[in-house]
Specification:
- With 278 residues, this protein is of the alpha/beta class.
- 32% of the residues lie in helices and 19% in strands.
- It is built from nine helices and ten strands.
- Helix 3 crosses helix 6.
- It is elongated and about 60 Å long.
- The protein starts with 7 loop residues before the first helix and ends in a 6-residue tail after the last helix.
Length: 278
Amino acid sequence: AVVSTQSTGEKDKVEELVKKYRRPYVIPFSREAHLLTFEIKDRSLSVLLFHDHAEEGSEERLAQFGMAARAYQNDCTFVEMDMANGYVKMFTNFFGVKTADLPIVYLADTSKQSENLAKTKDITESGVAQLIEDFLAGTAETSAPKKEAEDELPEDWESRSLKYLTSDNFVSYVTTPERAVLVMVHKESCPHCVKMKPIWEDLAEKYKEHPTLKVAELKSSNVAQIKDLTVQKVPTILFYPTQTGSDLSTAVEYEGDRTLKGVEEFIFTQLSKNKDEL
């Protein structure tokens, strides 16, 4: 079948529909399936089954989880987190999952920064459905992700390829007239941030000799102490052009694909607005 679109907006809608309906009800999480898991833009609710797939009884458990997934496929993304997979273990700190807790289901709302997790040990179709209904109704018992330790400014922060920013040096660094700054606001326990960190380190190394552009990072725990800096989600990528002055609102937020190619195209577009910076 050939799909004809009349506008960019219509094309985006078609692409989102294709992404939505090519996904299985339950996605087995892996390094390869990472983007598939989180690519639906307007879906912030993820329901994750943490268990050992090789364990006796796991197939029945997964079948129950799958029935809930079919019922709530338009509201949530359902993911199997097999703890035998080393890549999955990178994400357990965010939820505070321990081997003794298994099996367990977590619901995470990525549109919120706090009190955005809920969980249940009742891994039946009705148990998972109840968790979702309670969360949507605002009656579920919720918690926040693991809190980051207080941040300190390292002595070598400015000599690093990836500049290390905190609430102490953020404003002065991004508002210095002769430099443009690309900064990622992240959280160490955030799975999306963990995925993005190697890309960010590669960018910093690639642009370390650039005459004006600097690549930096800021832990989200600093945001509350920085006046006029508003961050709704992590990771958030912000570009501060030269001549930012004291107005942090001049930052341009990157909202494209979280890939090296995507971010580099964004950098080129922003620097092109001032040809002297290229």
